[in-house]
Structures are given as C-alpha cells and as structure tokens.
Write a structure and sequence with these properties.
Elements (H helix, E strand, L loop, with lengths): L3 H21 L15 H9 L7 E10 L2 E10 H6 L6 H7 L2 H11 L5 H5 L7 H13 L4 E4 L2 E3 L2 H15 L2
Helix pairs in contact: 5-7
C-alpha cells in the first residue's frame, strides 16, 4: 500500500501534466474568433463563389431560446437578390413594423406562447387588438398556430428574424 506522501506526489504530477496540456492546447472551436479570424464566415463564403460573380449574401446562426435549439443557414447570390421582386416582401416586412408585433414575437420566442399569457402583458392593447396583431404575424409567416390559442415562431424564421433585427440595429 502506498503512503500518503506517494499518493500526494502522484496527484501533483497529474495536475502538473494536465496544466501543461491545457496551457499548450489550441483554443477550442467554440472560442470567439481571434482578430485574425474575424471574417471567418465571409472568408468561407468567398472561397465558394466564382471569381467572376457579383457576390452573395449569407446569414447563419445557432440560437438557443426557451429550451429550443435553432440552427440555420441561408444564402443567395447578389444576382438573384437584385433580380427578385422586392415588392413581394412588403407584407412580411410591414408585419414587423409595429412595436406591439415586435414585442409579441420576442415574448413568443421567449416561451410565452398562449394568448392568455400574452394578454397579461401590459401595453399590448385590448384582447381584440392582440388577436389582430397575432393574425398579422401569422399571415406574414412570422408566427404559426401550434394549437388552440397557442403560437410559436416557426423554426425556419427564428434566425432570419434575429438577422433582420441585427441589421436594423446596424450591428
């Protein structure tokens, strides 16, 4: 049987080896990008594009809210975006252009999904106004009915919604 001193010495050696390993190991992949790697997503996009093209727009995200995980990536070429009929987007964008609707989206995304829960929030107006806003968001595809009086932001809309908000904030 080993002595206490021998066991302590062995533990100290293990701690020293672990410390050496951790301090010499590269940064984990989930670490924030270094200044040299600030545009890592952009660099990856550029590598996939033809040299003679006009470019592309890419948005991507991984989001965890209300115990749900959303991973999303979407990209379009600049030619496709410029050739599209932007007037078709007015309904989806105008549905976001109201303070109550933005508040509703934030609350639903955060887990308050029932109309009863939403009606308890101050400054949202009457029950009739609440239902009007919920209908507007549902018609534009920002919300989906998930049962009687319950709503959710569709999974495919979570990252796009947050990307729009980030773009509107200028960040």
């Amino acid at each position: 049987m080993s002595t206490v001193e021998e066991r302590l010495s062995a533990l100290e050696a293990q701690v020293a080896a672990l410390t050496e390993h951790l301090t010499s190991a590269p940064a984990p992949s989930d670490a924030p990008p270094t200044p040299e790697g600030t545009f890592w997503a952009l660099d990856g996009l550029k590598q996939r594009l033809p040299a003679d093209g006009t470019g592309a727009v890419l948005y991507t995200g991984t989001v965890r809210v209300a115990d749900q995980q959303y991973d999303w990536q979407y990209g379009r070429t600049v030619d496709d975006l410029l050739a599209a009929d932007w007037t078709e987007l007015a309904g989806a964008l105008s549905a976001l252009a109201h303070t109550v609707r933005l508040r509703l989206l934030r609350e639903v995304l955060g887990g308050r999904q029932g109309t009863g829960e939403l009606a308890e929030i101050e400054d949202l107006g009457t029950t009739g106004q609440l239902h009007h806003h919920l209908r507007q968001l549902t018609a534009a595809g920002w919300l989906r009915s998930v049962g009687r009086g319950r709503y959710a932001v569709p999974a495919e809309r979570v990252v796009p919604l947050l990307a729009i908000l980030a773009a509107a904030a200028g960040r």
